[in-house]
């Protein structure tokens, strides 16, 4: 196996991380361990374009923030990325694209999106990754990629379960983004096989 | 209006759109006072999306440099008030207020729509011009102008916001539709929509945004100057055209049938011992309001309103009705109707025993504030001429009689018609400034200073102003070089957020923008008093330190922009302070000889963390919450119990009466052998418990529930604190943040850590919640160490310790 690393935008995926990502059919991936989720995130980040909206859903600790960290690294963000639970919105300047990281955990009504400044940004500028946005998905625009993260219940007991990622795109950019992520993960698989 | 016929240098800028527009010009008032003559010396206009706060002050300095001038030459500041991006407008206005306060300069506001129309005029356009400014969310700010050789003339009253298709429809229906030449940044999205409706004449895209020169010309035109204001920086506010979404949605709901809530029963206010609250009138209030109206107006010629009339008002648009209530009892009502840029006050009634408490004044302030946000520029009312008390109140608020209607209330009973410019001169209820724009004499009187006063000020250097606007308190403090706090002012917005169950970011940003000048003046006056001199001036300061983060981005930028403007104009230093470090420093108010290393717990509505303070400025975050903050958990539980917002004081008051062992709630991560916290599970357990008891039909023992919940929080906090202190082998422990005001938590720390010989410092109650005195301590340290920030500094909403 090659010990060279796989390029993902402004960052590279270590082979150890690459081995933790699995393609399980179009729009379905499995990662084992945080490094796998980070690697998948970096592939997502490398595919992002201006105006893209990605809504991440999953329980606490599912890996939403970790996925965002990978995406940020691929965009060339060097500052630390944490969940902006209290502040709702974090802005990270990438090399060529601004990443808006939202955590809507504290909101309980779509009416609050405007006053929290979410609607001024999502789909308007930069690329937006939205955690805890599943309850407000419709208000976040029709063109987006929803990614649901679940724990694999078939994982051996006592072990940190693998994470299953399932994409549901809508609209032209959402679909393009899903296709791009699919082909990136497949390319990563081929790279490992080579 | 300041005397500037002789000519002065004006600095003008606009950050309402994606374009940063800035110009420096000479400005001479025309002898007839009808507009000013201007000559642009230098300008800079460039695309600047989201970087307005970074670029604005450096750009001002650069343009002044190109014009061969400095900040000291500036005699007038002009700012674009929007409409546009709310945050963009606030960056411009807060910076302009800072610049103005830096040297007591007049500040004029100009409409950004007018500036775009003037841009078209400067570009050679004549005839009918339609400005379409992007209002986001599918909406635009439309404005139609007639351009002749003298300049553009508005064909509309006040700015407003419309759904794009509706705006297109309005102009398409005009008989002269085909001759409208379109411009404005709204065309980036909606040019096609206008074209489909037959509006195809479009000005070149490089004219779509305001320029520095067009902004100055808009302000210097006779109409622009008439609307520019008095020069008082407190009164220059953004043009929003709408309330925050939270308020808009609330207004929509108020007219609907809604079940009685705790807001109307008042049980939360009783528990929290909160008196005299204001809130918008709802359908549930109309019966009580009608009774009040009858009681108040029984002996007067004014006909009381019926419940049906009040109910009808709630379903009308352009209305604002507010009630005052005290622990469930309705004690006052006021309402108004916005028509053609003016708000007509329809009714003001305060219960007899509650007169002379300033209730009518506060209610009118709310009604007219809403009206101003909806575009009103003045208030009008009619009053029975013999009602001396009411007439005196209105006169104190700035109303003057414009007409008399003889015999209006019957033979010999005249009505006075009065009006007043907005905002009203409401003043402040107590020694705390309201988070609203205040009308007061301007410019401030600056008596010449004695030699002693100058020496006192010199002896107190470096004097540093601290500014805090990270959440819902607009706070400023002044500190002397020896660490004495000379002034400490907090304008809390809690009244404006409480009824929404939490801090509404858009409202917080608006209130900071309104309060910032008043809080600054109050802090400078207090500092002068402490030194035995007249109010301090910005040029007396060595530096201004401002909370740069963490916090709500829209709130932070107001304090940062104001501070940068102030620093640039007064020629003083600038320091960016970490809010969390401020909370650590607040412990010095309790234990002045506190020295690192020590362990600190920061617990607030936004943070829950344990920090190893190795040295001042050298921090290791040992662990923090992985979900909710402690303060948030208190708020959520209070909400589930219908106890209102904020939850901390009510829960802790209830808990004092309850049994902390009554209900076994989970202690999350108690044995995780690290310093992570999790409050989400506890919150869920409490809510599940409440629902289960409700289903079983058992009454909830509120004190027991509160005490048990609070004990579950405290157990984990204290246990982890103890482990941290022992693991770091330290014997000092400190606390910071709003939750540190919780008496049970304070005493649990003192007891459990005290047993182990650890000295526990808990800041005084007033220093636990957000304040600027703690920011001042950090700022002074940095000033003394020469660690100053650049004027390109921006807010850092996610700044960690």
UniProtKB/TrEMBL annotation, chain A:
Gene: tsaE
Similarity section: Belongs to the TsaE family.
Top-level taxonomy: Bacteria, Bacillati, Actinomycetota, Coriobacteriia, Coriobacteriales
Coiled-coil intervals: none
A Pfam cross-reference name: TsaE
Record localization: Cytoplasm
Major subcellular location class: cytoplasm
Protein name as annotated: tRNA threonylcarbamoyladenosine biosynthesis protein TsaE
Function, as annotated: Required for the formation of a threonylcarbamoyl group on adenosine at position 37 (t(6)A37) in tRNAs that read codons beginning with adenine. Is involved in the transfer of the threonylcarbamoyl moiety of threonylcarbamoyl-AMP (TC-AMP) to the N6 group of A37, together with TsaD and TsaB. TsaE seems to play an indirect role in the t(6)A biosynthesis pathway, possibly in regulating the core enzymatic function of TsaD.
Annotated NCBIfam families: T6A_YjeE
This protein's UniProt keywords: ATP-binding, Cytoplasm, Magnesium, Metal-binding, Nucleotide-binding, tRNA processing
PANTHER family, per the entry: TRNA THREONYLCARBAMOYLADENOSINE BIOSYNTHESIS PROTEIN TSAE
Signal peptide: none
From TrEMBL, chain B:
Residues that coordinate or bind Fe cation: 579, 583, 770
Subcellular compartments: Cytoplasm
Name recorded for this polypeptide: tRNA N6-adenosine threonylcarbamoyltransferase
Key words of the record: Acyltransferase, Cytoplasm, Iron, Metal-binding, Transferase, tRNA processing
UniProt-listed SUPFAM superfamilies: Actin-like ATPase domain, Acyl-CoA N-acyltransferases (Nat)
Reactions catalysed according to its record: L-threonylcarbamoyladenylate + adenosine(37) in tRNA = N(6)-L-threonylcarbamoyladenosine(37) in tRNA + AMP + H(+)
Pfam families, sorted: Acetyltransf_1, TsaD
Residue span, N-acetyltransferase domain: 276-423
Annotated binding of substrate, by residue: 602-606, 635, 648, 742
Superkingdom of the source species: Bacteria
GO molecular function: tRNA N(6)-L-threonylcarbamoyladenine synthase activity
Family to which this protein belongs: Belongs to the KAE1 / TsaD family.
Gene3D superfamilies, A to Z: 3.30.420.40, 3.40.630.30
Chain segments annotated as coiled-coil in the UniProt record: none
Main localization of the protein described in the UniProt heading: cytoplasm
InterPro entries for the chain: Acyl_CoA_acyltransferase (IPR016181), ATPase_NBD (IPR043129), Gcp-like_dom (IPR000905), GNAT_dom (IPR000182), KAE1/TsaD (IPR017861), T6A_TsaB (IPR022496), TsaD (IPR022450)
Function field: Required for the formation of a threonylcarbamoyl group on adenosine at position 37 (t(6)A37) in tRNAs that read codons beginning with adenine. Is involved in the transfer of the threonylcarbamoyl moiety of threonylcarbamoyl-AMP (TC-AMP) to the N6 group of A37, together with TsaE and TsaB. TsaD likely plays a direct catalytic role in this reaction.
EC number per UniProt: 2.3.1.234
Cofactor(s) in the UniProt record: Fe(2+)
HAMAP family: TsaD
Cofactor binding annotation: Binds 1 Fe(2+) ion per subunit.
Region of interest: Disordered: 427-449
CDD domains in the cross-refs: ASKHA_NBD_TsaB (cd24032), ASKHA_NBD_TsaD_bac (cd24133), NAT_SF (cd04301)
């Amino acid at each position: 196996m090659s010990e060279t690393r796989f390029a993902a935008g402004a960052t590279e995926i270590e082979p150890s991380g690459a081995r933790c990502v699995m393609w399980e059919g179009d729009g379905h991936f499995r990662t084992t361990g945080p490094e796998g989720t980070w690697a998948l995130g970096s592939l997502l980040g490398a595919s992002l374009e201006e105006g893209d909206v990605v809504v991440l859903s999953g329980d606490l600790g599912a890996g939403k923030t970790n996925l965002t960290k990978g995406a940020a690294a691929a965009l060339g963000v060097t500052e630390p990325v944490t969940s902006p639970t209290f502040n709702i919105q974090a802005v990270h300047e990438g090399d060529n694209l601004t990443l808006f990281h939202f955590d809507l955990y504290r909101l309980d009504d779509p009416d609050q999106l405007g006053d929290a400044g979410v609607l001024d940004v999502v789909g308007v500028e930069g690329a937006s990754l939205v955690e805890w946005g599943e309850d407000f998905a419709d208000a976040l625009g029709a063109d987006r990629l929803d990614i649901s993260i679940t724990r694999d219940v078939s994982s051996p007991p006592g072990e940190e379960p693998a994470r299953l990622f399932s994409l549901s795109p809508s609209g032209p950019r959402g679909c393009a983004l899903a296709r791009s992520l699919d082909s990136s993960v497949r390319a990563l698989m081929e790279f490992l096989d080579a | 209006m300041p005397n500037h016929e002789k000519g002065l240098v004006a600095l003008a800028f606009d950050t309402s759109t994606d374009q940063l527009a800035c110009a420096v010009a000479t400005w001479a008032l025309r002898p007839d006072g009808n507009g000013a003559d201007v000559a642009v010396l230098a300008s800079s206009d460039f695309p600047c999306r989201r970087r307005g706060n970074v670029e604005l002050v450096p750009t001002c300095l650069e343009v002044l440099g190109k014009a061969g001038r400095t900040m000291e030459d500036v005699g007038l500041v002009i700012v674009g008030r929007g409409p546009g991006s709310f945050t963009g407008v606030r960056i411009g206005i807060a910076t302009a207020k800072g610049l103005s306060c830096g040297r007591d300069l007049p500040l004029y506001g100009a409409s950004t729509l007018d500036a775009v129309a003037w841009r078209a005029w400067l570009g050679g356009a004549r005839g009918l011009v339609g400005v379409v400014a992007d209002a986001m969310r599918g909406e635009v700010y439309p404005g139609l102008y007639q351009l002749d050789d003298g300049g553009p003339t508005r064909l509309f009253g006040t700015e407003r916001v419309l759904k794009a298709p509706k705006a297109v429809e309005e102009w398409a229906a005009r008989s002269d539709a085909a001759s409208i030449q379109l411009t404005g940044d709204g065309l980036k999205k909606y040019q096609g929509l206008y074209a489909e409706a037959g509006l195809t004449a479009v000005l070149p895209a490089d004219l779509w945004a305001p320029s520095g020169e067009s902004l100055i010309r808009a302000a210097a035109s006779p109409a622009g100057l008439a609307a520019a204001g008095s020069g008082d920086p407190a009164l220059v506010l953004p043009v929003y055209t709408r309330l925050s979404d939270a308020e808009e949605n609330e207004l929509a709901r108020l007219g609907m049938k809604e079940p009685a809530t705790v807001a109307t029963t008042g049980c939360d206010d009783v528990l929290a011992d909160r008196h005299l609250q204001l809130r918008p009138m709802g359908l549930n209030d109309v019966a009580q309001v009608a009774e009040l109206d009858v009681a108040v107006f029984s002996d007067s010629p004014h006909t009381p309103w019926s419940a049906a009339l009040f109910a009808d008002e709630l379903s009308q648009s352009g209305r604002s009705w507010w009630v005052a209530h005290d622990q469930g009892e309705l004690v006052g009502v006021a309402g108004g109707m916005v028509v053609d840029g003016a708000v007509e006050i329809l009714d003001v009634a305060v219960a007899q025993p509650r007169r002379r408490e300033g209730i009518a004044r506060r209610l009118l302030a709310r009604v007219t504030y809403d009206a101003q946000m909806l575009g009103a520029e003045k208030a009008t009312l009619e009053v029975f001429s013999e009602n001396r008390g009411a007439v005196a109140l209105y006169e104190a608020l700035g109303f003057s009689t414009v007409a008399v209607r003889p015999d209006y209330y019957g033979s010999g009973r005249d009505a006075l018609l009065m009006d007043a410019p907005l905002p009203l001169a409401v003043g402040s209820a107590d020694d705390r400034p309201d988070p609203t724009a205040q009308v007061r004499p301007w410019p401030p009187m600056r008596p010449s200073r004695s030699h002693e006063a100058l020496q006192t000020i010199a002896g107190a250097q470096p004097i540093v102003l601290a500014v805090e606007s990270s959440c819902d308190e607009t706070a400023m403090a002044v500190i002397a070089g020896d660490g004495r706090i000379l002034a400490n002012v907090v304008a809390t917005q809690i009244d404006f957020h409480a009824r929404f169950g939490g801090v509404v970011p858009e409202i917080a940003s608006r209130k900071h923008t309104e309060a910032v000048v008043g809080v600054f003046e109050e802090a400078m006056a207090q500092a002068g008093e402490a030194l035995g001199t007249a109010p301090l001036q910005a040029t007396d300061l060595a530096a201004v330190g401002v909370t740069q983060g963490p916090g709500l981005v829209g709130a932070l930028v107001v304090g940062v922009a104001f501070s940068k403007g102030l620093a640039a104009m007064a020629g003083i230093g600038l320091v960016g302070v970490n809010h969390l470090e401020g909370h650590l420093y607040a412990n010095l108010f309790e234990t002045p000889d506190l020295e690192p290393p020590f362990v600190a717990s920061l617990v607030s509505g936004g943070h829950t963390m344990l920090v190893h303070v190795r040295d001042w400025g050298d921090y290791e975050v040992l662990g923090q919450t992985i979900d909710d903050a402690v303060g948030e958990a208190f708020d959520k539980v209070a909400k589930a119990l219908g106890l209102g917002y904020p939850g901390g004081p009510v829960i802790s008051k209830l808990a004092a009466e309850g049994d902390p062992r009554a209900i076994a709630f989970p202690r999350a991560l108690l044995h995780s052998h690290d310093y992570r916290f999790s409050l989400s599970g506890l919150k869920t357990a409490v809510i599940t418990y409440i629902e289960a008891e409700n289903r079983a039909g058992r009454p909830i023992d509120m004190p027991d529930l509160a005490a048990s919940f609070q004990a579950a929080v405290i157990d984990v906090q204290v246990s982890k604190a103890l482990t941290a202190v022992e693991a770091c082998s330290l014997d000092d422990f400190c606390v910071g943040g709003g939750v540190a005001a919780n008496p049970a938590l304070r005493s649990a720390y003192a007891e459990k850590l005290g047993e182990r010989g650890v000295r526990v410092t808990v800041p005084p109650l007033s220093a636990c919640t957000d304040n600027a005195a703690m920011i001042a301590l950090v700022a002074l340290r940095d000033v003394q160490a020469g660690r100053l920030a650049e004027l390109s500094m921006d807010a850092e909403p996610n700044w960690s310790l």
